[in-house]
Amino acid sequence: MTNPQNPKDPNSLSLASGGEKKADFSNVQGHVDTVPDTSGGSGGTGGKADFSNVVGKVDGVPDGGGAGAGEQTYTVQKGDTLSHIAQKHYGKASKWHAIFDANRDQIDDPDKIFPGQVLKLPDANG
Q1: Mean pLDDT of the region 64-85
Q2: Whose CA is closest to 112, among 122, 103, 125, 124?
Q3: Does residue 45 form part of some domain?
Q4: Is pTM beyond 0.85 here?
Q5: What is the CATH number of the domain that holds 98?
Q6: Which helix (H) or strand (E) element contains residue 99?
Q7: Domains in the chain: how many in total?
Q8: For a designed S-S bond to 96, which of 5, 28, 86, 113 qualifies (C-beta 3.0 to 4.6 A apart)?
Q9: Dihedral-angle region of residue 46 (phi above 0 means left; psi in -120 to 50 means alpha; beta otherwise)
Q10: 3-12, 32-41, 47-56: which has the highest mean pLDDT?
């Protein structure tokens, strides 16, 4: 027989010693921490997740262009500025704001554009 006091004896640590003993899970407890609903919503969802306020957004590239209707793209070259690009494409350097606004997703500072960036050029009438 094995010595239950000997932790180096693998037989004394086994739960399946001879098939007579079974693990006792009667004292196992579970607990789930949740974040309370502070959105002012309906509250209880019957234990199910509430996805009623989930918002999805897809930024897709349309086939055949890469820019929306009436838009072109321009790849920034070394030495370019938004004013220079606006002058070249619209005939007015002051239209740099339109390029900046159309590219807010990738430009935080209108003075910081980099060679290789592909900018959307909105329709000159827009």
Answers
A1: 79
A2: 103
A3: no
A4: no
A5: 3.10.350.10
A6: helix 96-102
A7: 1
A8: 86
A9: left
A10: 47-56
